[in-house]
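Illustration: DUF4179 domain-containing protein.
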Amino acid sequence: METERRIFWARIEERTSDSDLLRKADDAIMAGLASGQALVRRRRRKFQKRFLAFAAASCFLIVCFASIRVSPAFASAIRQIPGMEALVEAIRHDYPSDDTLQDAIDNGYLQKVDVSDEHDGLKFTVEGIVADKARMVLVYTLEGLAPGEQMSVQDIDWKDGSGRKLGLSYGTAGYVQGTEEARSQTDSIEILFPEREPLPDVMGMSVKLRNATYAVTFPIDKKLFAGNERTIPLDETIEVDGQRIVIEKARISPLRIAIEGYCEESNTKAIFGAGDMLIVDDAGKEWGLPSFSMGAAEKNEAHFEFKSSYFRNPKKLYLTGSWFRAVDKGKLLLVVDTDKKSIVQAPDGQVAVADVSTSFGKTFVTFKLNLSRKDDNMGYMLLAGPFVDAAGKKGTATAMGTSMGFAGGEYMHEEDRYELSSGDYVQPLTFDVYMYPQYIEKPYRIEIPLDQ
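Result:
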């Protein structure tokens, strides 16, 4: 029987050159080649996420940096610090397969925060963080939940110590829920810092819960990871089906490795992500995407991020894979007649209008996207956001959520729901395609030289 899994999207706000905030999706978000977005994943985060297929989602590429192993006695001592044991267990619970985070905890990359805000009996506490320059996992607790009450910690505003808004991508679980036995629930948020938005000395966050705004500010102890990043030049080119992706360098830090480059402008296809890209060490261990990953490929940039073997000290690392998501540049429009609930134009026949509904004066459109590859479990942000009607009137489609469809244990399709901005529109409506499941294939293997 087919089952469904609900995925939530977090807001990603980026500053443009004129200081306007743009909504982008991480990681959604996932391995890919396009602009950053944030895909919210459930607690177990079995989904690939990434920060989005990289056109909007980027892969997390992480390499070993140096050997900084510590004794088991030191790792055990961390848990003896008041408040640390619960923090450690929360991260181990939410990221059971993330060896990078487990290694970071065992090596002291853990900062206790313990700052709170409380309104009407509900208390929000940031317990602590694990962070480096590019990635942060923040653990929080909600106390005072009513039995059965579901609380969503998603629509978050991030600021630095001066109050400046930060353009970050982040992923969260969909919600936490109170029970008769547990009125307090602990969960985590994963945050990605692009190179243009470095980790601040002081960080603030605010989120609306119930009918109040909860705001906390906390310092970040950069001494924990100061100087622990290096850049390795690569200058390699991956050519697949006539499309060229130039890999310029690897940036390595304790929590992730970023592979950076660009897609050549002469390419005839838009590249939306690297489907099975991995880092493999000399022992054969694979270092794939973190639970949440991101990327960006604006202006043909290519950015992939992965888990890090930093604390394992391998002698060699390799960037490997065999397929990318790509669509002809001339087929990047989705034209829809919402009155007739039909597709007028699309890259191919894999997408259909599943539903159009109206509620409280708002129009919602749900698209069903079939997947031809059973190993493509990314989760797509189908539309870029803006659209134009037949008369030239502009509107905006806001992503509301994605349902993942499985059959026989295999990921078969997804349904993406969008809210259209209010207005009287002349049919049909034309949207830009943001990510799409078409593919190009060719195996590749690039060595990342660690002896430089």
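Reading the tokens back as a structure: Confidence is low (pLDDT under 50) at residues 1-76.
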